[in-house]
Specification:
Keywords: Magnesium, Metal-binding, Phosphotransferase system, Sugar transport, Transferase, Transport
Shape: rod-shaped
GO molecular function: metal ion binding; transferase activity
Organism: Scrofimicrobium appendicitidis
Oligomer: single chain
Number of helices: 3
Pfam family, one: PTS_IIA
Helix content: over 70%
Cofactor: Mg(2+)
Structural class: mainly alpha
Length: 116
């Protein structure tokens, strides 16, 4: 059985790594505002690794339960899963914003060259 302490520790690991991912996503968006695409992509890469670690912790607990190990219900674990899902969505949007902004930057550069 997965005891309450283990459940809480896993939930906190998920929240910690997901929160670190959110910090990197915010950094990526600041870099994007400055059209620093390399730094934005680096920050998104670091965010993705943090999200991966959070997901790994979640998956281990879910797999334990699927093997028949009982787990106590934990509102903290539900919150951790919600946090992870939200931050993964933020990552997806930020990644698309980098692509979109890069595309617009290229188009603007092309227009500027044609005017010159």
């Amino acid at each position: 059985m997965v005891d309450k302490t283990e459940m809480m520790q896993t939930a906190m690991q998920i929240i910690l790594h997901a929160g670190n991912g959110r910090t990197e996503i915010k950094r990526a968006l600041v870099c994007l505002e400055e059209f620093d695409f390399a730094a934005a992509e680096q920050a998104l890469s670091e965010a993705q690794e943090q999200i991966r670690q959070a997901h790994r912790a979640q998956t281990e607990l879910i797999q334990s339960e699927s093997r028949g190990e009982e787990a106590e219900f934990s509102i903290l674990f539900v919150h951790a899963q919600d946090t992870l899902m939200t931050i993964k969505s933020e990552w997806n949007i930020a990644e698309r914003l980098v692509g979109l902004t890069r595309s617009l930057d290229r188009r603007l550069s092309k227009l500027e060259q044609n005017r010159g």
